């Protein structure tokens, strides 16, 4: 990013509005959170500094451990399904013409549905009385119930997420594919390369940049997921589909335990930050020499 | 293009498209039925086709105001996001300055923060400011994740414009504002469109913050839809119609930016 | 290595009617086995289309392509054993140089020992031996083009190597090195080479024969000298040479021509069919003559440029601009002077409807 750009400290003025906006939206609230995380607010007038007490308490909470474990499983499953599926989808989408436009719109549609509507759609879809999926499964003899059966709830939430977010991966991969000049495919034909070789040596390497964005975004967002599972299952049955965001929201709003909630918020944030940092560096190391060759 | 397993690709694509459209089709199907029909029989197509649900939404203020509210704060948010992001993106794209890499990364970390974390602080902040239940509150709250995104997308597109253009304009005597608005902006039209699309998208779909910060006046459609239980049971038909209507603005916007949408998802870095 | 024969045309759509509907107008051409050819012309003239038809990346809408007599019109590039080098280096980033060069051979299941031997030989020829184990992605543009070329040369049975403006992204000071290397390879391996370019210097130095193309038409095919001395078409006269040929409208009459109503007489026994013609003479051959020698006309010098090895005169004659190259030893006239330009010369060509008119002796 910084190869031959001139140094100009006055550029700070251009960046100032952004910093102010984000500081307002982020730093101020975060400071509040930090503030709460180290205090016990017994009443609006009485606050006691408790240091790391909340952090310790939160990290010992078995509910948290379970929610974290569920969350990790969920995010891993999401990545394992959505990344390959998205790539496959991108490979099958037409490159140009009116067909490309139509397919593009249909594929991108699920990304623009308000998240609670996504939950509602699947809520309806999965019911045995009024939903196509539920009804069909019932007819096939499957005792499907996402409200009663924890495994069914898990699968439904997972498939809902796949339905909702795979297009993001697909569109990113699609953009990467479109940037490959035709000459590469022609050269591969001339070299007698098989379809698999074309994918492995030309398409996949060229998609590395966008796939990195895809993995990071999907990991982050799946780790923060709240609305869709909440609308669909409310976190149930029991705690089967209660992931970290819901755990936090319940603690913060439901139980009004500000201190512990704030402490957990910080822990939550740092977990994501850590994972992303590690993931980002790992993917960078996979092909640092890519930067040298620039664009063809 | 690759002839080998051409048919396999098309089959897979069709299969996915069906998978993508099936739940939506089902909701559309329901939106044209009456509640009685929904609850009594199971049909793939409405036996008694009715526009009544849509009529309800368009005529009942408690419903359509939801859409209006959503559109308002999404619009405000997009406008603010773009306005502050443009100069910042230009700075990141063209100059090095003290702490530039750190600020850039810091902006991205805001995208990584779970909105749930901000629930309470936002609630308190906006109550203190007296901005609860206003459109501006939600618009400002959404700046949290939209501004970093807008900066990143715009920076990607801007870096694709050769610096020689800036230098030529400078030599030709253009003042910076004049250069920026008359020369530079038209060149990154696509980038601005994409950034606007994403700001629209992420603000339109967000529920948690939007619901927390509003109650009556600025209540967005996403919150309105959670209250469709009445005395006679769940109002599925109207809910379905409302759902369909939330998809419509999105579909329209996608159509307009369809040429840039793929590139935009890659934040111009392709 | 193969004799390549083309007898085809290529139209954009299914029902071509006018010339504009054709990317390549009907042509018949043969490329000798082991010859070095250049397809030269401005953008859009159809040279890349022709190249892609030869390589098999494009199927002509009508006609055939033959390799050594065999009809390969519908064969893939792989089946024709073609190698092609593109405008920008096309390499497999994730592989080393050696793996890149070995790739086409591995796909054909050539035994490892033979692969190593061929890769080594080609790498040495291209001066890449030192980089065999480096990742291809980290090399400079000209080295990457060499790898692209190497992948084509490494196959022992390659029928022809096709180049599509391969020096486009190479730094100017490295271009001549690569060009020399290509000539060397041609000399050593005796392969059929077909080179597409819009740069006449590249074409004329590289190829034994150049095909000049314009707007889908193969205008002239011949050695550099022929294209220079006797352009078959005004386009060739204009395109080749720096600056290109001078053209003047004239009227052919018995024993000579009339230019601006002034008579000029043929020295040798030459006859042209009477009527309007275009007189063409290259700046290199447009010398200064004398008043009254029957072959020259007065012109006003509007500009004199000292190019170093020669002087470039720009003159006005009856409303037409003519350029002349004068050797550095002669003292050039000054701007504003009137000189006599010797228009009729052994090298003067005449054109009717843009085509060269042969003077019958």
Contiguous low-pLDDT stretches of chain A (5 residues minimum) are 288-296
Largest sheet of chain C: 6 strands, mixed
Number of discrete domains of chain A? 1
Distance between the termini of chain C: 42 Å
Profile the largest sheet of chain A: 2 strands, antiparallel
Going by CATH, the architecture of chain A would be: Orthogonal Bundle
Shape of chain C: elongated
Task: Note the run of SSEs of chain A as H and E.
Answer: HEEHHHHHHHHHHHHH
Widest sheet: strand ordering of chain A: 1-2
Figure out the total of helices of chain C.
9
Query: Mind telling me the CATH superfamily name of chain A?
Result: MetI-like
Please, what is the CATH homologous superfamily of the largest domain in chain C? P-loop containing nucleotide triphosphate hydrolases
Structure annotation, total helices of chain A: 14
Write up this protein.
Chain A has about 300 residues and is an all-alpha fold. Chain A has one domain (about 60-295): MetI-like (MetI-like fold). Chain A has helices spanning about 10-35, 55-60, 60-90, 100-110, 115-125, 130-140, 150-180, 180-190, 195-205, 210-225, 225-235, 245-255, 260-285, 290-295; strands at about 40, 45-50. In chain A, strand 1 and strand 2 (about 45-50) form a beta hairpin. Chain B is mainly alpha-helical and about 270 residues long. Chain B has a single domain (about 60-265), classed as MetI-like fold. Helices cover about 75% and strands about 0% of the residues of chain B. Chain B has helices at about 5-30, 35-40, 50-60, 60-95, 100-110, 115-130, 135-160, 165-170, 175-185, 190-205, 210, 220-225, 235-265; strands at about 230, 235. In chain B, helix 3 (about 50-60) packs across helix 4 and helix 4 packs across helix 10. Chain B is globular, with a radius of gyration of 23 Å. In chain C, about 25% of the residues lie in helices and about 35% in strands. In chain C, the strands form 4 sheets. A 6-stranded mixed beta sheet of chain C has the order 6-7-8-3-9-10, with helices on both faces. In chain C, helix 3 (about 95-105) packs across helix 4 (about 110-125) and helix 3 (about 95-105) runs parallel beside helix 5 (about 140-155). Classes of the chains: A mainly alpha (about 300), B mainly alpha (about 270), C alpha+beta (about 350). Chains in contact: A-B, A-C. Chains A and B meet through helix 1, helix 3, helix 4, helix 5 and helix 6 of A and helix 1, helix 4, helix 5, helix 6 and helix 7 of B.
């Amino acid at each position: 990013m910084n190869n031959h750009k001139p140094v100009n400290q006055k550029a700070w003025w251009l960046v100032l509005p952004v910093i102010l906006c984000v500081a307002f939206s982020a730093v101020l609230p975060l400071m509040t959170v930090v503030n709460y995380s180290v205090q016990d607010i017994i009443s609006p007038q009485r606050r006691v500094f408790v240091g790391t007490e909340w952090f310790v308490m939160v990290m010992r909470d078995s509910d948290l451990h379970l929610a974290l474990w569920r969350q990790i499983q969920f995010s891993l499953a999401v990545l394992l399904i959505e990344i390959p599926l998205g790539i496959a989808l991108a490979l099958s989408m037409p490159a140009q013409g009116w067909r490309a436009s139509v397919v593009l719109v249909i594929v991108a549609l699920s990304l623009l549905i308000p998240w609670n509507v996504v939950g509602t759609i699947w809520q309806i879809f999965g019911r045995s009385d009024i939903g196509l999926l539920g009804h069909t499964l019932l007819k096939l003899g499957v005792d499907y119930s996402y409200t009663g059966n924890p495994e069914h709830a898990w699968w439904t939430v997972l498939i809902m997420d796949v339905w909702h977010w795979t297009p993001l991966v697909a569109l990113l991969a699609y953009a990467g594919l479109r940037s490959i000049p035709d000459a590469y495919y022609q050269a591969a034909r001339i070299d007698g390369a098989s379809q698999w070789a074309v994918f492995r040596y030309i398409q996949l390497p060229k998609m590395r940049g966008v796939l990195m964005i895809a993995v990071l975004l999907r990991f982050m967002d799946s780790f923060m997921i709240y609305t869709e599972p909440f609308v669909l299952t409310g976190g149930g049955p029991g705690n089967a589909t209660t992931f970290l965001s819901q755990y936090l929201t319940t603690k913060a709003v439901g139980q009004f335990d500000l201190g512990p909630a704030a402490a957990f918020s910080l822990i939550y944030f740092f977990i994501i930050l850590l994972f992303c940092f590690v993931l980002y560096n790992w993917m960078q190391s996979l092909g640092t020499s890519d930067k040298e060759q620039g664009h063809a | 293009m690759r002839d080998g397993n051409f048919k396999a690709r098309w089959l897979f694509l069709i299969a996915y498209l069906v998978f993508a459209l099936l739940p939506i089709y089902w909701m559309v199907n329901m939106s044209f039925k009456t509640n009685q029909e929904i609850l009594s029989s199971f049909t793939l197509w409405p036996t008694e086709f009715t526009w009544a649900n849509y009529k309800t939404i368009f005529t009942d203020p408690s419903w359509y105001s939801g859409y209006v509210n959503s559109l308002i704060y999404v619009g405000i948010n997009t406008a603010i996001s773009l306005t502050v992001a443009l100069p910042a993106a230009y700075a990141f794209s063209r100059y090095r300055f003290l702490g530039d890499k750190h600020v850039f990364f810091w902006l991205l970390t805001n995208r990584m923060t779970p909105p749930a974390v901000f629930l309470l602080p936002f609630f308190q902040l906006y109550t203190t400011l007296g901005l609860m239940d206003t459109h501006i509150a939600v618009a400002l709250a959404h700046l949290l994740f939209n501004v970093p995104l807008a900066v990143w997308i715009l920076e990607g597109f801007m870096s694709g414009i050769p610096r020689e253009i800036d230098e030529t304009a400078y030599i030709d005597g253009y003042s910076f504002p004049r250069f920026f608005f008359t020369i530079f902006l038209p060149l990154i039209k696509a980038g601005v469109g994409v950034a606007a699309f994403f700001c629209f998208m992420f603000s339109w779909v967000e529920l948690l913050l939007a619901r927390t910060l509003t109650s009556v006046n600025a209540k967005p459609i996403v919150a309105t839809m959670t209250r469709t239980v009445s005395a006679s049971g769940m109002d599925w038909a109207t809910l379905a119609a409302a759902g369909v209507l939330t998809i419509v603005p999105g579909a329209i916007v996608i159509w307009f930016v369809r040429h840039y949408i793929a590139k935009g998802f890659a934040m111009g870095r392709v | 290595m193969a004799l390549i024969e083309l007898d085809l045309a290529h139209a954009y759509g299914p029902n071509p009617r006018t010339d504009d509907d054709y990317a390549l107008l009907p042509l018949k051409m043969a490329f000798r086995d082991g010859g070095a050819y250049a397809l030269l012309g401005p953008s859009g003239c159809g040279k890349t289309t022709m190249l892609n038809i030869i390589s098999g990346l494009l199927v002509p809408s009508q006609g055939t392509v033959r390799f050594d007599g065999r009809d390969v019109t519908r064969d893939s590039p792989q089946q024709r054993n073609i190698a092609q080098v593109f405008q920008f280096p096309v390499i497999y980033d994730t592989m080393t140089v050696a793996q890149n060069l070995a790739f086409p051979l591995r796909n054909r299941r050539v035994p490892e020992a033979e692969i190593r031997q061929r890769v080594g030989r080609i790498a040495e020829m291209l001066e890449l031996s030192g980089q065999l184990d480096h990742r291809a992605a980290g090399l400079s543009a000209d080295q990457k083009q060499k790898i692209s070329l190497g992948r084509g040369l490494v196959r022992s049975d390659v029928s022809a190597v096709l180049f599509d403006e391969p020096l486009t992204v190479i730094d100017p000071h490295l271009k001549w090195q690569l060009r020399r290397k290509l000539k060397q390879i041609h000399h050593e391996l005796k392969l059929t080479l077909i080179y597409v370019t819009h740069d006449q210097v590249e074409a004329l130095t590289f190829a034994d024969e150049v095909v000049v193309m314009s707007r889908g038409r193969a205008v002239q095919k011949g050695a550099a000298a022929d294209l220079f001395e006797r352009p078959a078409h005004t386009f060739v006269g204009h395109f080749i040479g720096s600056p290109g040929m001078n053209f003047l409208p004239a009227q052919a009459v018995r024993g000579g021509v009339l230019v601006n109503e002034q008579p000029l007489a043929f020295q040798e026994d030459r006859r042209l069919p009477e009527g309007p013609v275009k007189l063409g003479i290259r700046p290199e051959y447009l010398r200064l003559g004398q008043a009254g020698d029957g072959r020259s006309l007065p012109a006003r010098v509007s500009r004199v440029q000292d190019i170093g090895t020669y002087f470039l005169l720009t003159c006005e004659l009856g409303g037409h601009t003519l350029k002349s190259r004068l050797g550095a030893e002669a003292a050039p006239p000054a701007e504003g002077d009137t000189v006599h330009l010797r228009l009729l010369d052994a090298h003067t060509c005449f054109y009717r409807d843009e085509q060269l008119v042969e003077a019958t002796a």
